[in-house]
Amino acid sequence: MNFRKLNQGYLFIFPAMFVLGIMILYPLIDTAILSFTDDSGAFVGTKNFTSVLSSRTTSLATYNSVYYVGGSIILNLLVGTFAGILLDRKFVGRGMVRSILLIPWVVPGIVAATTWAWMFHYEFGIINYGLQSLNIISQPVGWLTSADLVKPSLIAVEVWKTFPFVALMVLAALQGIPETLYEAARIDGARFYHEVRYIMLPHLFGVLASVALLLLIWGMSGITLIYAMTAGGPANRSLILPIQIFKEAFESFDFNRAAALSLVLFVGLFVVIVIQVGLSHRSQEVADD
Amino acid sequence: MTKNKYSWVTYLLALIFSCAALFPFLWMALSSVKPLRELYSVPPTWLPQNFSMENYTNVLFNSNIPRYFLNSVIISVGATAISIFLAALAAYGFARFNFRGKSGLQASILISQLLPTATILVPLYIILGHLGLINTYAGLILVYLIHTLPLCIWMLIGYFRSIPYEIEEAALVDGASRLTILFRIVLPLAVPGIVSTVVYCFVSTWNEFIFALVFATDSRVKTLPIGLAEFTSEFNTDWGAVMAASMVMTLPVVILFFGIQKLFVGGLTAGAAKG
After folding, report:
1. Does residue A28 sit at the B interface (CB-CB below 8 Å)?
2. Fewer CB in 10 Å around end: N or C, chain A?
3. pLDDT tens digits, A229-266
4. Does residue A289 form part of some domain?
């Protein structure tokens, strides 16, 4: 290649990098500054942090976030892996099933929220009606209004929306496994579940680790489903941290507390990511040995 | 894989998964053509007994949805166009030049996509406020670049790298400038890649919710997702209208998605024929 004019590269990337610097880097720095000052801009030390972290809402929102995001990740990985292995099998109509399974992923998040909210409707919802006709429940259930059911219900919607993505990643990884591996296993008398246990799952480990990381980040910034279906209710039982940040900032108009909470969430996520990447690197090395 | 006696299990599972994936979408479509009286009846009907387009006429003629649709189109097209233009330049820079700090910058673009958007809402609000861009198309387009620009750069780098450099070398010898080469040679060759990048960009801005919720509070610039959320949270929710509006919002995405599937296949086979 010709690299005589080395600096021309900077000219090409400058406009994009300039925009990203202003829109991402500067706001990150500004979040840090806001979190240590008050609304007049005076330095207040850790006051915002102690005030926001000691509030009961924050501990509830943290609990809800871990419950909702953790539950979604586990179920997404299970259902997605299952669907991915299924789609890897050869059967008539596989192409069509693949396209159909992608529908939840393609449907806009807000549309998933409105549709499921209608299906969950207390009086006229199809879910209450269906479960009552099957005699699984005797009374209509307030899926989105009951303190105990709201998080599992929201997790169900989130998994419905996201498992196709996991399935697609799993499928792509499975198709990278050489056919000879299966043939060798079959000569040794391996059954299908042996193939899953000893060929597919070990091969999927790396992909699932990266997918879990992505799901964590998406979950921790995902407002759409919950905000549109319950807005954090009932009584904050589905309030997760990003929604709390939004409410602190744009309903209570306390920018500094919101910034402090943002910084805590950012640092917390960063630590988890570093640990996760480190762990999967190490296990990758062990596997390579 | 070989056929075995358990293949009916595969079919059964495929059927169950397909129904689970499809049902909410079907239910939305069916609900959107039922009149309100039928929607609010116990027990509910599975198929529409009194097929009616009244929900659609309500949404199209008696609500803000058409305006929100227009706003969404303007903002998504604007953000996509600007992203593709800036990303084409940047991706070309990354794909064809060597410079100090290149790998670090490239990595930072990838990492920036992992940023939880909630954590920068407040400073963005302050910045846009200073610039007078809250509740403007320009403001929303600008914040959408946060999502779309890194993604576009990353996708286009891949497509540009797959184009053989020899073609460009010939043009360089003939005295063409790098910009000319990018717009006259590289971009036309990368059309299939650009189309999928455009679709991805458009769909992700079309569906975006959080930024729109914060930066577009005026009905002159509100986008469809916000309009839908408003509909749902009203005290007296008109679920028929909500389902019809949901269909209106989903349709462009579905069309783009199936359109690109064909284009993808077409592009792939065209390439194979030439090779």
Report:
1. yes
2. C
3. 998 889 999 999 999 999 999 999 999 999 999 999 99
4. no
Which of A24, A118, A133 lies nearest to residue B120, judging by beta carbons? Answer: A24
Number of domains in chain A: 1
For chain A positions 182-241, those within 8 Å of chain B (CB to CB) are 182, 186, 192, 217, 220-221, 223-224, 227-229, 231, 241
ipTM, 2 dp: 0.87
A104 and B CB contact within 8 Å? yes
Please tell me which of the candidates A91, A108, A265 has its beta carbon nearest to residue B119.
A265
What's the pLDDT score for residue A277? 79
Distance CA A113, CA A130 (A): 20
Classify residue A68 by burial, with Cβ atoms within 10 Å: 0-12, 13-18, 19+.
buried
Q: Do B229 and A118 touch (CB under 8 A)?
A: no
The pLDDT assigned to A287 comes to 60
* pLDDT at site B270: 45
The whole-model pTM stands at 0.89
- The CATH number of the domain holding residue A201 is 1.10.3720.10
When pLDDT is averaged across residues A40-44 and rounded to a whole number, the result is 88
Q: Structural domain of residue A225, as residue ranges?
A: 68-239
What pLDDT, in 10s, does the model give residues B111-146? 888 788 888 999 999 999 999 999 999 999 999 999
Q: Is B263 exposed, middle or buried (0-12, 13-18, 19+ CB in 10 A)?
A: middle
- Closest residue, chain A, to B140 (C-alpha): A23
Task: Give B275→chain A minimum CA distance, Å.
Answer: 23
Residue A95 lies in a domain: yes
CB B143 within 8 A of CB B215: yes
User: In this structure, which topology does domain B63-274 adopt according to CATH?
Assistant: MetI-like fold (1.10.3720)
Cross-chain Cβ contact B40/A124 below 8 Å: yes
User: A287: which 2 tokens?
Assistant: 């596997």
Q: Is B107 on the interface with A (CB under 8 A)?
A: no
Kindly list the domain boundaries of chain B, sorted by start residue.
63-274
The answer to whether the beta carbons of residues B38 and B45 sit under 8 Å apart is: yes
Contact B255/A at CB under 8 A? no
**Residue A48 resides in a domain:** no
Please list the residues that pair with A37 across neighbouring strands: A43
Residue A40 lies in a domain: no
Question: In whole angstroms, what is the distance from residue A15 CA to residue A9 CA?
Answer: 11
- pLDDT-flagged residues of chain B (< 70): 1-5, 234-235, 262-275
